[in-house]
Amino acid sequence: xxxxxxxxxxxxxxxxxxxxxxxxxxxxxxxxxxxxxxxxxxxxxxxxxxxxxxxxxxxxxxxxxxxxxxxxxxxxxxxxxxxxxxxxxxxxxxxxxxxxxxxxxxxxxxxxxxxxxxxxxxxxxxxxxxxxxxxxxxxxxxxxxxxxxxxxxxxxxxxxxxxxxxxxxxxxxxxxxxxxxxxxxxxxxxxxxxxxxxxxxxxxxxxxxxxxxxxxxxxxxxxxxxxxxxxxxxxxxxxxxxxxxxxxxxxxxxxxxxxxxxxxxxxxxxxxxxxxxxxxxxxxxxxxxxxxxxxxxxxxxxxxxxxxxxxxxxxxxxxx
Length: 320
Ligand code: 13P
Ligand code: SF4
Hints:
It is a single chain. The chain is an alpha/beta fold. It has 15 helices and twelve strands. It has three domains: about 1-95 and about 280-300, 3-Layer(aba) Sandwich (Rossmann fold), CATH 3.40.50.10800; about 100-180, 3-Layer(aba) Sandwich (Rossmann fold); about 185-270, NadA-like (Rossmann fold). It has helices at about 20-30, 40-45, 55-60, 75-85, 100, 105-115, 130-135, 145-150, 165-175, 190-200, 215-220, 225-235, 250-255, 285-295, 305-320; strands spanning about 30-35, 50, 65-70, 90, 120-125, 135-140, 155-160, 175-180, 205-210, 225, 240-245, 260-265. The strands form three sheets. A four-stranded parallel beta sheet has the order 2-1-3-4, with helices on both faces. Strand 3, helix 4 (about 75-85) and strand 4 form a beta-alpha-beta unit. The longest helix has 17 residues, at about 305-320. It is globular, with a radius of gyration of 20 Å. Bound molecules: 1,3-dihydroxyacetonephosphate and iron/sulfur cluster.
């Protein structure tokens, strides 16, 4: 009998207490579990650190652990490996990619650079190691503005791969940026029309948005920032109701920090709730356990590439 792929169950882990097993393996391996806010809540709850992309790379840069288990997507785990060549870096599912990284192939990025000689290439961390190696400075949503403000005004800036973040930064800094036309499949789905209708039903709610959202959505936001920025704003602002225009995994920490407040996921077209990142959600508790038990999938990078990609990441960490 042929078992369809989706029904194939190579190994049942039902008899295991996964939380306990992961904690045991973590001790035995001297591992640290770093998780992004878009991971499922069970994974966030057992991670040693949960944060935004900048915080996660800072944690990866400073960890004393022998093994880094990255509960996030490939570009994040690659960044951890670039910073820690001698450590074992594990990603529960190697297919956990990112539409921004996938939409910016290195050969095309190189051609983009060659069309603008003399420009500074500031590249969002959501890109491959190859694209990092072709960039001058890496940035995240929480330090991009600060980094752009440190570039001399006579220098022209190329910004890739997120066009919406790029446009937001142009408005914030008043700088002209040449943008790569990429976007995030999750943030691009939020609908201005549905958001306006939702706001009418919740007139007291503040809108919090990630800068990967299109300009038409950002124009309705009371606050625009990284995932950590959104969480911090909601925690300290006295409002009791918030509409959140980013991946819905962040709601877990928002509810934990402010159980008395109401958080509503921003809607997509026709009111659909499509705010889950299919890449981030490829990681599961089972895969987290298996990657630790089997010490794979492991992130591996060719040393020359790693060294070229390291330079713009270190510049980011210095300039943050
Ligand atoms: P931050 O957590 O840095 O805001 O980034 C969001 C994101 O899209 C990660 O993929
Ligand atoms: Fe990439 Fe968007 Fe998923 Fe973040 S939410 S990993 S930017 S596809």
